[in-house]
Amino acid sequence: MEKINKVVLAYSGGLDTSVIIPWLIDNYGCEVIAYAADVGLADELDGLEEKAIQSGASKIYIDDLKEEFVSDYIFPTLRAGAVYEDKYLLGTSFARPLIAKKQIETAQKEGADAVAHGATGKGNDQVRFELAYMALDPGIKIIAPWKDDKWKIKSRADALNYAKDKKIPVRFAREKMYSEDRNVWHISHEGYDLEDTWNEPEEKLWTLTAPVEKAPDKSEYIEIDFEKGNPVAVNGKKLSPYNLLCKLNQIAGRHAIGQVDLVENRLIGMKSRGIYENPGGAVLYSGHQAVESLVLDKETYHYKQQVALKYADLVYNGQWFTTIREALDAFVNKTQEYVSGTVRFKLYKGNIILAGVKSPYSLYSEKLATFERDDTYDHKDANGFIKLFGLPLKVNGLLRGKK
Predict the structure, then answer these.
(1) Which residues lie below 8 Å from residue 48, measured CB to CB, with a gap of 6+?
(2) What does pTM read for this prediction?
(3) What backbone phi and psi angles, to 5 degrees, belong to 210?
(4) What is the CATH number of the domain that holds 257?
(5) What are the tens digits of pLDDT across the range 130-156?
(6) Active-site residue list
């Protein structure tokens, strides 16, 4: 076994990554540096430094990445209109490349010869972390305990016993039944009773959003301003990317907006069921699409829909640091030059209802679109257009003997 002197571990403070610290020390005889990224984790970082040191880490880095996460990872994906399998707004997917990037930077700063993560061999995150590591530092060693022959921890009970043996503090803020991932964009829930697709999510599951039955009986109007595809203001007030998203999460969350129940196709081949909460994200996607519908011409709009599918696949599969993703960004950014305007929604019990949209760059012409009498459009012009447009169909019918 090749000697590992120092490793930087992607650390969350949860049970798995907490036991990985002493496991790395026991099995590799190396120094362990914990790395944690704040991408909007609420109170999950409380006491993290103390816990990492008690678990055996020599030190811990905790970086505030909230604004960078929203502006450089969430907003590009929003501008692309990328949605995985019609519903998933990629909340975990684009957080991992950012965390891996900063983890690599920390490893280079500390002179570490390896990085490690706590993702299992069944999920997508192992791919997202490791592709980023390989792209950003091809020579660094990667340790993935769940895929290591020396890893004998196969269950939560095993991990708890290992933690007890190593005197690792294990604190539970609440009874955690589900496997969850949270950041400012979303929270996901997997496992437990959700593994049976016939089971409806229990009311106590909802974290960022109200149960629809408890949402207000009165609708609420909201306005969002966009500039070049980026949301910049809520109800006329300009906010930083992170604060804007927090504001929308608060407003949309109380109206049960953004609740998604999805059986998705994981990258490794199996299907999994996830419950996602994206209150602010759901409103932003609807708002961005509404403004685009005014300002993009037909050919650009339709081709961009195809790009959105590919972009979603790339992000989901962990291919953030790739030439093709950067090339697609160049296309998307060109399309966003005139995606500026204001959208108004009515929010009511899980519904995002369009109540108005406007843009100084709108291609919509009331004079052309009107059903009233007008002098701009000659209906007779459509005769020649239809004859030419339908010519291949007519020729096909004639030559194949159709009457």
Answers:
(1) 11, 13, 36, 60, 62
(2) 0.94
(3) -80, 150
(4) 3.90.1260.10
(5) 999 999 999 999 999 999 999 999 887
(6) 16, 96, 125, 179
